[in-house]
Amino acid sequence: MENVHILTQRIAGRGEFLPFSAEHYRKNEPAATQELAAKLQTSLILEDILAIYAKFAKQLLNFSGIQFKSALGTVQTPDCDIDTLSYTFDLNVENSNLGQLIYFSKYPLSVAIEKKLQYFHSALLYPLRNAIMYNRVLKLATKDALTGLSNRSQFNDTLLQKLENCRRYQRPFSLMLLDLDSFKQVNDNFGHKVGDDVLKEFALVLNSSIRGTDSVFRFGGDEFAILIEDPEFTTNKVIAERIMQRVKNSKIMAQYSVTTSIGFTLASSQDTENDVFSRADKGLYKAKAAGRNCAKAY
Q1: Structural domains present in the chain
Q2: Which of 98, 162, 213, 225 has the fewest CB within 10 Å, making it most exposed?
Q3: Does the predicted TM-score (pTM) go above 0.70?
Q4: For 268-283, how does the pLDDT look when each residue is reduced to its tens digit (9 = 90+)?
């Protein structure tokens, strides 16, 4: 594959450690590479591809984990120990950089093993590229183009899944609905460019106000939602107060006198998606009726 270039960087240490199976792969490199390529083509999910690849690579290098870093983020094998030696490879195909493949191991990487890993890399490149392209398409279908938040379609799917988990595994959650007070006046008086800047700033506020287990969505316009894993009203209140405080502290939102109104509710195993949404919406209406710039439960 003349158009494939694999560059090695940041090699933390070198040695002549060879696992017991290296001799086997010295004799069977073409067959092993073909077998790996065939298995890698069975999935378009990055985590699956990395797991399949790791199973093969484990026979060459006694590693403690593998990561793949790309513009889509970082995926890694389960129980990846990043505190061991790291060996990073840039993966390029057709003059395009896919990302970095990082091996973590307690053992030094010999030149011989590095050379054999490159045969595996050649089998990994095109399935990996296909998976990246597939995930980019999925992201476009489920992400709001302006803010980068998940969109209404993704919200509907996530809400149904959370309700199913609530029924089957007794995992209660809450729904928070938010919109921006006086946002229409921003668009009318200052134009949609400023309005877009306010929406992007609010998205940053929301993302910085939640925990890793919570999810933020934009429905369109100035309407947003958060699905919160914790079933306590106190958690909703803490998150709501944090959001309102950060809106108040935001220069751009303060400049255009934009605040937020919030409604929230707890879901139960008897709820439908309409039940949950209706109650949260009533909480939002209560916040508007109370003078805006506040949060109300229903």
Answers
A1: 4-141 (3.30.450.40), 152-297 (3.30.70.270)
A2: 213
A3: no
A4: 999 999 999 999 999 9
